[in-house]
Write a structure and sequence with these properties.
The chain is an all-alpha fold and 301 residues long. It is built from 13 helices and no strands.
Length: 301
């Protein structure tokens, strides 16, 4: 397999992740936020086992499994429930933009942990990313704090889950760099996520799952897309052009918004796209300003 092919796998993974938000929302609409997520991660886990093989507990340190796995499971559940519990498809896309604050937050945490001097332009870049999120909530009527507050108060739990997920994933990116030591237990983490979601589903008030042909096809497709994204990225990081892939990965908010709006049939206003552009540019600047400091941050998607 050539260097070009490894890089191609990484590019394919980025585009597959770009389609995930829209697909996850369609699964939640068909099976419910919790039941749909449980089905989705079960299928993705099975797919990863078929592709990567059965994970063996003894190959991984207990510290990595407990800390890394706990953070991974928490993040995936926050993201899945934020997508599924959004009041509308448009609001689900807002959750996605909030989720993409994680690169900027990752850099901030990395700087704090490393205690190294960085460019003063880093902080305006982080601010730009956060401003982008607020901008997506304003609508074409123009910026209004009242409008933003009303938007959030209409579904505070969902907005809270989306932001919490971004923070958790930022912590995961920093922590796993220190404790993973080359280990990759992604299949085990997906299995754990599915198990937790099934327990949550059993304890919830959601009704029984109903399998129509279209809904069944959607959940299988989404699970395979999700699993394929992680499997391809796992291949890409072996010998791919990580500088190129890291740069492209920071455009995921734009790719995700475009694909998801098409999948969900949502027409987005100008301010929403402006906000997405701000989040993307802010995150890209954060990475650019720390790219020559490999001890600070390592690109992760």
């Amino acid at each position: 397999m050539s260097h070009f092919n490894y890089t191609g796998c990484g590019i394919a993974a980025i585009f597959l992740w770009g389609a995930m938000i829209g697909l996850m929302r369609t699964v939640a609409e068909a099976f419910g936020p919790i039941g749909g997520a449980a089905l989705l991660y079960t299928i993705a886990a099975v797919f990863l086992i078929l592709v990567l093989g059965v994970p063996k507990r003894q190959h991984f340190s207990l510290r990595y499994l407990l800390i890394g796995g706990g953070l991974f499971v928490s993040y995936e559940i926050c993201l899945a429930l934020a997508m599924g519990m959004a009041n509308s498809r448009h609001q689900a896309l807002e959750m996605a933009v909030i989720n993409y604050l994680w690169p900027a937050i990752t850099v901030v945490l990395a700087v704090i942990l490393s205690k190294k001097t960085v460019s003063v332009w880093l902080y305006p870049s982080v601010g730009l990313a956060f401003t982008g999120v607020v901008w997506t909530l304003t609508g074409d009527a123009g910026f209004s704090i009242t409008h933003v507050v009303n938007n959030i108060s209409s579904n505070p739990l969902t907005y809270g889950l989306a932001f919490m997920g971004a923070v958790i994933w930022a912590i995961y990116c920093n922590v796993t760099k220190l404790i993973a030591k080359g280990q990759n237990a992604i299949a085990l983490f997906f299995i754990a996520t599915a198990m937790v979601l099934w327990i949550k589903y059993a304890l919830s008030q959601e009704g029984p799952l109903s399998f129509s042909p279209i809904a069944t096809f959607n959940v299988i497709l989404t699970g395979v897309v999700m699993g394929s994204g992680y499997a391809l990225w796992n291949i890409a990081i072996l010998r791919g052009n990580m500088l190129l892939l890291a740069t492209l990965s920071y455009f995921t908010p734009v790719i995700s918004t475009l694909f998801s709006s098409l999948i969900l049939g949502v027409i987005l206003d100008t301010s929403f796209w402006q906000g997405v552009a701000m989040v993307t540019l802010g995150s890209l600047l954060c990475w650019w300003l720390t790219r020559d400091k490999p001890n600070l941050i390592e690109a992760t998607t």
